[in-house]
Amino acid sequence: MGLNILSIQNLSKKYSQNQVLAVKDFSLAIKKGEIVAITGESGCGKTTLLRLIAGLEIPDEGTITIHNQIVADKTTWIKPEKRHVGMVFQDYALFPHLDIKENIAFGLNRVQNKKEIIHDILALVGLQSYENRYPHELSGGQQQRVALARALAPQPALLLLDEPFSNLDEMLKEQVREDLLRIIRQTATTTLLVTHDVKDALAIADRIAVMQQGKLQQCSYPKDIYEYPVNTYVARFFGKMNVLTGSMQNQTLQTAIGNFPVSRAQAKSIGIRPEHINLIVKNLQVIESHKVKGIVSKIHFFGAYCEVTTRVGDVEIVIRTDNSFEGKIGQEVGLEVNKYCEW
Ligand SMILES: Nc1ncnc2c1ncn2[C@@H]1O[C@H](COP(=O)(O)OP(=O)(O)OP(=O)(O)O)[C@@H](O)[C@H]1O
């Protein structure tokens, strides 16, 4: 277990007396060099959490520790500029009247070898020849790299990124995401990033924290959170999930599409991702050997794959198949579940 760079304990924040908590009893620890993504639906408190860590908001309850120093609790308040935190805002917040090297120099007031640092950081973000340009003379992706360079130049203990890809189109996003990840890894910077886009969270983060109405729902590794979400909110945030309730018999949940052994005595439902069901179409004998049969009710072609909705009794099950699916609506098919989670 490495050293925690950020530790948040029981953090709560309300903007006004008659408002609900924007952040509710939130706890999280981030290890040195880790990249953690905070995600959740709009208004769930992601930005508020980031602003509390940066020192742009004052918490009502809880403790924030950065690099072994308490920066906020009932009796402590450390100013943002003393927290060793670098922040990249959604709109990059570059100073329009300063050129790129002056923008980067902004956080380096008391540093001796300023010129050298600026040169190195511009090389790191691939903008060596742009140091005399002004922000409006750069593309969105380049502006973001300048904002990142400015945040990284003072070598912060913790980097905070607020929706780093929201101003970029889809084509550019992937490249910028790769660049950002390379730079963060190369500098081994501990990073907390806020994103509403689960694809970005899954692609970049070592761990993902999901919030709902100010509360942390789950913080896990990308594969675990995708395959074993703790509840249906987290499950559906990461894409479609077939949820089936059932009754328990001998540690087995009996559902409309078969019986599933479960590990918890109190399990009430199971969740199955559409790609975790095999659809058997061709060989009727094979279908016979599978106890679960359904009737195709909808087929959606999505280019790289097909989504086939199958009715089993009263239940509709969504299955992802490859794009060569040639079945027809009304056709009988067999279903074979190869992975599921339980709640
Ligand atoms: N300055 C403010 N004054 C009053 N309420 C605020 C303020 N900022 C945020 N809120 C409220 O706090 C809650 C959390 O907002 P926050 O911006 O942290 O959510 P978010 O998850 O970042 O949302 P989004 O993804 O839409 O940016 C919301 O109910 C929001 O309306």
UniProtKB/TrEMBL annotation:
Residues 6-238 form the ABC transporter domain. Pfam families: ABC_tran (PF00005), TOBE_2 (PF08402). The keyword Membrane applies. Gene3D superfamilies: Nucleic acid-binding proteins (2.40.50.140), P-loop containing nucleotide triphosphate hydrolases (3.40.50.300). One of its GO terms (biological process) is quaternary ammonium group transport. One of its GO terms (cellular component) is ATP-binding cassette (ABC) transporter complex. The keyword Ion transport applies. SMART domains: AAA. Keywords: ATP-binding, Cell membrane, Ion transport, Iron, Iron transport, Membrane, Nucleotide-binding, Transport. GO terms for molecular function: ABC-type ferric iron transporter activity; ATP binding; ATP hydrolysis activity. Transmembrane segments: none annotated. This is Iron(III) transport system ATP-binding protein. It comes from Thermoflexibacter ruber. The lineage of its organism: Bacteria, Pseudomonadati, Bacteroidota, Cytophagia, Cytophagales.
